[in-house]
Design a protein that fits this description.
ABC transporter involved in vitamin B12 uptake, BtuC, globular
Amino acid sequence: MSAPESLARRARWRWPEIVFWLVAFAAIAAPSGKHLILNEIAILALFALSLDLILGYAGIISLGHAAFFGLGAYAAGLFCKHVAPDPLLGLAVGIVVSGLVGLLTSLLVLRGSDLTRLMVTLGVALVLHELANALSQWTGGADGLQGMTVGPLLGRFDFDLYGRTAYAYSVTILFVLFLLARRIVRSPFGASLMAIRRNPLRASALGVPVNRRMIAVYALAAAYAGAAGALLAQTTAYVSLEVLEFNRSADVLLALIIGGVGWLYGGIAGALVFKVLQDVLSSGAPQFWLFWMGLFLVVLALVGRERLMGGVRGLLPKALR
């Protein structure tokens, strides 16, 4: 089978994928009270998907991916507060701002080893966190960006307190961006990213423009993270410094590790497991939920994430792997 035929075969939709997304959209009709956590899962899934694009497919390690998440949140929040309340316009602004900053900072990420990239990405997030804190006249500083009034979605659907509209909005954006990511990773561009992750020198020798590919995917991942941040800002009508903190980067990295890197559904699965565990554990004993989460991660490491998730993935059809 030729390479184009193989890529075309992988790009075909299978029934398990269709069922998965039908269930995700059917959850809009879930009982009131469930949509807030579902909305958080959808946003974290999109954030994890953005990290998987650079870590799972290009091999770029990041400890400061929250930089772009926070940029998207503040860009959408400021746009809503000072320019226009339309959520789709604010989402577009968050995507563009984060993508442009990702494009600029990608030049720093290209230099050095994985350790250098870890320090650079973490440094960028810390710098943006301090800037947001210092520019309190714009961002609200430690008090957060308040006074946002997000307009109705498509001019008709108001964001309710129960989160039904918020979840419908977030899961739709997640699906649309997932479709784009799916098309990208199952294209010659995605195949070149996998080659770069395995061996950049060999990929370069084969004629793959390594630097340009890495710049492109890093900017794309930044735009995806910005979309997730914008969704959080719009569905909660509030932005705080927490969107730029290290904990945000750590949470999305943990979610991706739980679900597995290098397959698009890994971020979604990891976000689902992480948020459900967080919700269940914190509801039982809020002061000890981090202990149980840490214990779960230790067991995951001892058993072997690849062994555990490999068993789960082995039960799934190839379409979802």
